[in-house]
Amino acid sequence: MSTESAPKPTIRFRGRNFLALVVAPDPPLDEWLAHLDDWLTRAPAFFKGRPVILDLSAMKAERSEIPAIVAAVQARNVRVMGVDGADVEWLGIGTPAQLLGGKGDPAPEFRAEGSPAAGVAAGIVATAPEIKPETPHGEGDATSLVLAEPVRSGQQIYFPRGDVTVIGAVQFGAEIVAGGSITVHGPLRGRAIAGVSGNARSRIFCRRFEAELLSIDGVYKTADDVDPALIGKPAQAWLEGDTLRTAVLD
Fold it and tell me: Which residues form the Septum formation inhibitor MinC N-terminal domain (predicted)?
């Protein structure tokens, strides 16, 4: 009889990146929460199903105040998965964990057009692009991404290095995030967020406008803010100062 024991199963650890939003409150908290409520009224599905990181660095809150801040945000159906900018380890089980090392990409500040700050900073801190960009001829990283298939509801495409072109539709609940411009050769029904690398010259183009949200370099418009005459038409969006302009494409 063999005395050898059966091999023990190995434990495998794999790294994986995910798409998350950074929400950064500014003092005074009551005013910021009012801005957040306004945002949720304009875009009620924006945070649905999304992991959110709460950046408390601007609040300079006392430790005893942190649980109330987290609770106030979570009470608005925002899923706070972690906290940055504050030491929360001592708060114990049930408190979102403190996150480290999430400073790789700059987090763009989302603000309503014409306003220096709308109170909600939403930045991409981790990514899970479902379609890998092809490297163009020559050396260096790809500076453009072409998606040959429609972007489905719930799909999130993040490409901070340049332009994104979609050969097809961007469905409701889908999102395109680009460092440069976004071009959709079909209906744009989801969210198009361009210029996240600080490129105010970025533009958004689509063959049929039905978007939930547009943003360029942090300045945003929701569907309620757009001229109804654009619905169903070829359209473009661009920045003039702090104003996000939209127009029908001739």
Answer: 11-79
Q: What band does 118 get if pLDDT is binned at 50, 70 and 90?
A: very low
Query: Is the pLDDT confidence value at 245 over 70?
Result: yes
d(CA 108, CA 76): 22
Distance, in Å, from the CA atom of 215 to the CA atom of 177, rounded to the nearest integer, reads: 9
- Residue 188, helix vs strand vs coil: strand
Residue 161: count other Cβ atoms within 10 Å of its Cβ: 16
**46 vs 136, residue with greater confidence:** 46
- H or E element that contains 33: helix 29-42
Domains and CATH numbers, the chain: 21-124 (3.30.70), 144-248 (2.160.20.70)
